[in-house]
From TrEMBL:
It is found in: Cytoplasm. Its main location: cytoplasm. Keywords: Cytoplasm, Hydrolase, Nucleotide metabolism. It comes from the Bacteria. Its EC number is 3.6.1.9. HAMAP family: Maf. Nucleoside triphosphate pyrophosphatase that hydrolyzes dTTP and UTP. May have a dual role in cell division arrest and in preventing the incorporation of modified nucleotides into cellular nucleic acids. Belongs to the Maf family. YhdE subfamily. The record marks 10, 71, 155 as: Important for substrate specificity. One of its GO terms (molecular function) is hydrolase activity. This is dTTP/UTP pyrophosphatase.
Amino acid sequence: MIVLASASPRRRDLLSQLVKSFEVMPADIDETPFELETPEEYVLRMAREKAEATIEKSSLGVRDLIIASDTSVVIGDTILGKPTSLDDAKRMLRSLSGQTHSVMTSLCVCNGGLNRVATRNVVTEVTFREISDLEIQQYWNTGEPQDKAGAYAIQGIGGIFVQHISGSFSAVVGLPLFELSQLLSEFGVSALKENIHE
Ligand SMILES: Cc1cn([C@H]2C[C@H](O)[C@@H](COP(=O)(O)OP(=O)(O)OP(=O)(O)O)O2)c(=O)[nH]c1=O
């Protein structure tokens, strides 16, 4: 069985582009960064902990394949998770306005015995145009920023702020398709074979 250890509807949609049949089993973990952790260490730890929590909660075994991921927006040395309030979103979007930031999306693919674990961190550079405070308020009112890292969604209305992207669009949305297909093939799963029309 292939298991997606995620509550994200974006990740479910993206994974369904690669594999036909999988179960969704969200993991509930503490997402607080450690004090001296780099953003890369943080996103890789998050993906691994989501995979481990799901294995434990659902008693998955060596024959199961687990996929977990984490997306964080990084500006300078600051990790931006999901905004908890309008003020939080304002702080985030003001810091991204007119600047280039990194979106880090980590992947952890492993079996339920954790004797085979493969991880990847995919970094995408995103440049925003300048955004006014009025636009931030209006954007918040659309309801889109609330459950998104960095308080925006490139695949939604937030796309109007994105002047340039260098890297992986699917990684910014939540699951890097190129890198995930590479990891899956290491575990014997071929996205093309999975999708042969019968
Ligand atoms: C930057 C950006 C993030 N996001 C989303 C992807 C992730 O769902 C979310 C980041 O939060 P995550 O903590 O990575 O994921 P999640 O809590 O939604 O799901 P789970 O931990 O159960 O896997 O932000 C977009 O949809 N579009 C974007 O442009």
